[in-house]
Prior knowledge:
There is one protein chain. Helices cover 11% and strands 39% of the residues. The protein is mainly β. The strands form eight sheets. The protein has an 18-stranded mixed sheet that branches. Strands 1, 4, 5, 6 and 14 form a five-stranded mixed sheet that branches. It has a three-stranded antiparallel sheet with strand order 10-11-15. β7 and β8 (152-162) form a beta hairpin. It is globular and about 95 Å long. The protein starts with a strand and ends with a strand.
Amino acid sequence: RLVSDWSSDVCSSDLVNEFQPQGRTTNTFTVADDAYWQHGHHNFQFGFHLQDVRVRSFDAAGVLPVYGLYMGSGQQQYTLSQSNLPGVTTNDLANANTLLATLGGFLDNYSQTFNVTSRTSQYVPGADFVRNFILDDYAVYGQDNWRLTPRLTLTLGLRYEMPGVADEANSLELLPDMSAGAAGTLLSNATLNFAGGSVGRPWYKRDWHAFAPSVGFAWDATGNGKTSVRGGYAWSYVNDQEIVAAENMLEGNSGLQGLSTATGLSNRLSTGLPPIPVPAYAVPTTVAQEYATNPFNTLTTIDPNLHRPYVQQYSIGIQHLALHTVFEARYVGNHVVGAYRAFDFNQVQLQSNGFLADFLKAQSNGFLSMSLGKGFNPAFSALIPGSQQLTVLNKFGSRGDFSDPNVQTYLETGQAGELANYYQTNGFNATNAVPVYQNRYALGADMLTNYSSSSYNSLQLAARHRTHSGLAFEANYTFSKVLSDGDGDLQTRFQAFLDLNNPKLERSRANFDLNHMIKADGYYDLPFGEGHRLQFKPLNRVIGGWNFGAVMVWQSGAPFSILSSYGTLNRAARSYYNTADTTLGGAALKNIVHFQMTGNGPVEIAPTALNVDGSGVNAPGTAAFNGQIFSNPAAGTLGVLQRREFSGPWTFNIDMSLSKTVKITERQNVVLRMEAFNAPNHATFYVGDQNINSTSPAFGTIGSMFYSPRIMEFGAHYNF
């Protein structure tokens, strides 16, 4: 496949589909045998369940050789310059060279991805990336519904599960030897070898202790059937993306997919395409061997004792019937234990190597230089009072290269973690003069394990009413709180810690936590037509069969964070949840962070707390602007604000429906239906996480809706 970098206003899109097939095919086979036996006051249920999952994952991306037409470094003698085209603009000159490369067939680069087809195949040109995953689960259970007295029923149950171990049928995944323990392995030059059942190295151990008890009761408190008390407790095991999470972890290890690429070629199409060499293949391999060709190399593994997460659910409530209405009050809660989470053991090191102390000196030097009108220069200068000698940063290549704009930016903004990472991944630390990472051969050293937990506690109130006249409604209110130490919304279950040494920072309100929720729904069969008092036989088909319904939701806003996201302690890719610093607290902070409508639209941050550029901070090294209350955390620290400390505005929504049933015969009818979603067309603003450094959109701007604007749907259904 040939690729030209040609683009212009005339040819603005590629009409050729350059994407190769990828996807997954899943087959699930289930066998179940359930039995029921009644004996006296006991109703027994018992059975056996089996579920076999087979997944074929395939990806042909990159397996075809790709050659690029471009006037690169190998074609300098033919490249057009401004001297060849006097008066040409820079953009037109670039387009002219791209057109020349296309018409002249000047080759600049090639690339091709290579995959294995078996453990002994070596790299096979043109082979797709194919994996065949397996997960087999077995379970037996028994339950007794025991009517202890005419007014009291107990339910006792026990389920014994034998959760499967995710596997690849041909053991085409790599794992390190974990005999040195998690940290000892992930922070070393570990050896990677094939793993899977077919080579006698299962990814993790099967859990033989998965017992799941349950207990419940129902009590007729008054004996007249109008008041009941119910409660229960259940222990359940949950499939927490067992295949995808494990797959993602293991495929972070290099060695079973190779990339052959080159740039700066001097070839022409007229002389033929140069052959693309097949990369060297060697398994077992070491982390250092893979790092030699990829500075962004990762080392990943699965906890050998990984087990299936479980949820404990508990509730107790009372129901009472009065005035043809059922009233209910209940407490409902659950606790998730051992949910999957993968995180990085190889955090940036700032203290033990003296990096942070020297970073602060360089930053101070830069601000002193800037205050004298000499620009931001972190290097020591004997001519500037207070300037300090540097002893660590100058050990990196080019003595830290303070002229590099990225280095200057990270120093100015206090991003010590990201500067250390930048030095490591861009060749400044080739000799490991400053040990930035404990494992110098891996940018990430990740393990999937049972770490995360969450808790849900709620008070739920409900009322349900139904009449013989065709009116029914239900209303309920929930007051709840969800706390968790992980987002849990990624299929891969990977979420690195903000600070590995302070994991308590991870616990906060869940991103789906809604403290207050009021809901109501109802329908009414309009009292006209056949069967109703108001009817007129010639018009019954017109006036009868009408039904009106509505669903209302009124709920508190979703939680959000005020972030810096600067890599002040960890690298930037691990610092999304690094919050901002603030000088305010309590009511004073709430007076700034609250919903309001302005001439520029809805905002969540008071305009007085915004800079002229729309951000919430002033430039590094300068005084705070008038009204500034937020700031970025200092180098080596994290923001003081709690994650998801704030809530967005309440949202209100009503969906309505109107239907008309036209009876044709006893067995046939036509239903005409109109539905209006967000019928009042009410704006429902959603506030996502806010970053104080954002200028476009401005910090605090609300740009999303919780519910879409009004949508009308019309339909006709013929039932027979």
